[in-house]
Amino acid sequence: MDFTAQPKPATALCGVVSADGKIAYPPGVKEITDKITTDEMIKRLKMVVKTFMDMDQDSEDEKQQYLPLALHLASEFFLRNPNKDVRLLVACCLADIFRIYAPEAPYTSHDKLKDIFLFITRQLKGLEDTKSPQFNRYFYLLENLAWVKSYNICFELEDCNEIFIQLFRTLFSVINNSHNKKVQMHMLDLMSSIIMEGDGVTQELLDSILINLIPAHKNLNKQSFDLAKVLLKRTVQTIEACIANFFNQVLVLGRSSVSDLSEHVFDLIQELFAIDPHLLLSVMPQLEFKLKSNDGEERLAVVRLLAKLFGSKDSDLATQNRPLWQCFLGRFNDIHVPVRLESVKFASHCLMNHPDLAKDLTEYLKVRSHDPEEAIRHDVIVTIITAAKRDLALVNDQLLGFVRERTLDKRWRVRKEAMMGLAQLYKKYCLHGEAGKEAAEKVSWIKDKLLHIYYQNSIDDKLLVEKIFAQYLVPHNLETEERMKCLYYLYASLDPNAVKALNEMWKCQNMLRSHVRELLDLHKQPTSEANCSAMFGKLMTIAKNLPDPGKAQDFVKKFNQVLGDDEKLRSQLELLISPTCSCKQADVCVVSKLYFIFVL
Known about the structure:
By secondary structure, this protein is mainly alpha-helical. 67% of the residues lie in helices and 0% in strands. The protein has helices at 38-54, 60-65, 67-72, 76-79, 84-101, 110-123, 135-148, 160-174, 181-197, 203-210, 215-220, 222-234, 236-252, 265-275, 284-291, 296-311, 317-320, 322-329, 337-353, 358-368, 374-390, 397-406, 412-431, 436-442, 446-452, 459-473, 480-493, 496-524, 529-543, 549-565, 567-577, 590-599.
């Protein structure tokens, strides 16, 4: 619409006139035509605004008297006026006219009504600037429209949806953090009356609300998100059917063209569920349908969505919709690896937020703890340990048993995760006693199990046990007296096999110290062929006690070269392996120390 259009001559502005051919103006107000200056027009319009503002519906004589003026104010000259102050004053007059003449508007032409309401809607954009000198007048306009429900007149128009869409988009675009609660309240009243008293919500109008829930828009304008959220909660009984139809079109019938928001359906479902689950009463069965899709990627997307819905802290979806919950659990056994993996990841949040569902999850986690995929077995352990570290009561003995089994997994990454996880639980609940005696007894078996692993043939397992001993069973960073108490308690409470394993570990560590000590002694001797041969033998022996002996040989050789040239390093190493060393780190596995140096 061209706001710069030239106004028509004054004689053509009069619209409907009184019997004597003139428009009746309030006392003291001269004729308003295009012949006067803009400032003078604004001055006269302010007096007209005051007159209409003071009128009520019972002023029958005045209503009849000012009917020609009401029609005159709706002429193209005013609706297309280039001055924003003029347009604002005219909009305020029109809003009061709808209030005064309600329930019948003085404008009978549908085209004229459409032009008027589109014009008023455009003026509402002025609400955006709360510091504007005219803001109070924009607020009055909004308040008046909301109180009278003026836009409901548009239900009679065939193309009323165009007006409503423009109104909703305008209100959502102008709301900001400088507005008080009254502004939001009037916006809500205005929009909710259209939704609740109309014959239905079209898809385009629904989109104008839902677009504010999409993360990208939500982050840009939190106030528009809050406005949409409250609007949906207020109109849930009416709008739920429209929402269900939208998701049915996209999810079940695959008609993504019905809305520009089709690609965001899962984001929208998550947001709507958080606002009010009743908004999705008819949508949940559609998700069950999608869980059984033949498309693995589609099932994965639905599993990710439902994981958030079932796992959120205040959700009771699993108890309210058991068929959907059981269908979701079935995805733990999905043929598609990413779907199984996503299901396992969900279990951690579910155990922490909904411990009452642990029984349902246990059997599925048991199956997945033996999954052929290493990543899934690994994540089962992470899931259980994460929940147990949050609260040991969240994890039953059976779940901890799954972790225990995985300490003997064929894959090192899985074994390591299981061993480290159990070690962390032991330190938290046994050494620190964070959950009391009962919790300590529940995990007291961990120390024995971890030391038993020292019997395994893998050097990686042995070294990890040594690391766990120094960091979790008898932490090296404790004060000497506390470490001795910790060691005494541990040794006294181990089972016979664990005691043997611990003794073997110390024996191996002592033997390695001897090899290192002998290597240092060789460095003190003059260089000779026999000396080099003996040194090489010691290096190969030490390498066998390091991870990946093949690579370790190269590391050891390089380290030996540095050792030969650096007397200070040799002195430090002698101190480290000395039985009289007072350094706390002396009790940390020498092998681990050497490996650390080699790799760096």
